[in-house]
Amino acid sequence: MQNSIIKFERVSLQYQQGPYIIEDVSFNLYPGTFHYLIGASGAGKSSLLKLMYSGTKDYRGTIKIFDRDLRYLKPQELAHFRQQIGFIFQDFLLLDHLTTLNNIALPLRLRGEKWSECRKKAQQMMKWIGLEGFEEAMPTTLSGGQKQRAVIARSIMNKPKLLLADEPTGNLDDENAAKLLYLFEELNRAGITIIMATHNKDLTAEFPHPIISLAEGKISIQSPRGYEKVANNA
Length: 234
Known about the structure:
- This protein is of the alpha/beta class.
- It has a domain at 95-158.
- It is 33% helix and 26% strand.
- The chain contains 7 helices and 11 strands.
- It has a 7-stranded mixed β-sheet, with helices on both faces. Strands 2-1-4-5 form a 4-stranded antiparallel β-sheet, covered by helices on one side.
- Helix 3 (100-110) packs across helix 4 (115-129) and helix 4 crosses helix 5.
- The chain starts with 5 loop residues before the first strand and ends with a strand.
């Protein structure tokens, strides 16, 4: 039986003494899958992604990513763990003082690779992702769609197993949002597991994939055909 890439066992999260963001949630996600994450504003989508990234340990229960219990990750293991995860933010977070190529090459530079290799790999990635010719462009001169492609390129330079995307189409028009989903589907076919938080129901209908719904601290996972419920923590 295939091991899950993400496993939550009775996980709960609350901030200080406030209401539970996630309450007694259990589910498994498997390698090579593509899931949307939906929920009302403030439902906890970003918090759920943060847990998957080991961005906080203020939770109860057990979270395993790549079959590793996040509770027992040592500080020196965390950097290597996160190299296996790509994270895409809605607000781009490109470094404006670096060229587009240098932004994309940054994960490899931080890993200690030689600049000549970093540049070569970043150029290859830019060609593949549709940014060829923009190597020396500064982020402030790029369009919204180009910035998002640069962020995606940077997030997959380390060839992650898992890609977490927090509202990546929120600042894009419909045309660029659709282009982004075509790109995500190509990445998924290449073997990357994807979880994408979104409010865009048109995209989830046009590009059907299973949906993780988060509401009142509970999780359900529904198939794209008829939205048959396959997991529910109620």
